[in-house]
Write a structure and sequence with these properties.
With 126 residues, the chain is an alpha+beta fold. Helices cover 29% and strands 26% of the residues. It has helices at residues 2-18, 58-69, 101-107, and strands at residues 36-43, 46-52, 77-83, 93-98, 120-124. It has a five-stranded mixed beta sheet with strand order 1-2-3-4-5. α2 (58-69) links the parallel β2 and β3. The longest helix is centred in the first third of the chain and has 17 residues, at 2-18. The protein is globular and about 35 Å long. 26% of the residues are buried.
Length: 126
């Protein structure tokens, strides 16, 4: 599991390095890749990652979370967070990724209505 998180983090770092030469226009501004994935961890049935994107807007944070979530394999619950720096005390957006209905029932808490499609990504951007 750590190997997968390390490979994913390395891939994101490589993607960030190769995108440095591109021009940022209004069309590409919403698709800024994270400059680093820190604290990526998977333990048992859960995993988490903090994506660092300096100056990210809400739309950019949502796009980064969705892009990262497309490659999640293994855990039934995954926590994702975008913040401007490693030392930031506030996040831009965060999300919970649920693999299936069983994991949603186990982790979402009582009284919540399960969505109809899986995997499910619950985004929260204050």
């Amino acid at each position: 599991m750590r190997t997968r998180a390390t490979i994913t983090a390395s891939g994101l770092a490589l993607l960030a390095l190769t995108s440095c030469a591109s021009q940022t226009t209004s069309e590409t501004a919403d698709h800024r890749p994270p400059t680093a994935a820190t604290s990526a961890a998977t333990t048992g049935t859960t995993g988490s990652v903090d994506l660092i994107i300096p100056g990210a807007t809400t739309a950019q944070a949502q796009a980064a979370i969705r892009a990262y979530a497309r490659n999640i394999r293994g855990p039934e619950l995954y926590y994702l967070k975008v913040q401007h720096s490693r030392d930031a005390t506030r996040y831009v957006c965060r999300a919970r990724w649920y693999a299936d209905a069983d994991s949603y029932r186990a982790h979402a808490g009582p009284g919540t209505t399960a969505p109809g499609t899986w995997p499910y990504l619950a985004l929260n951007c204050p």
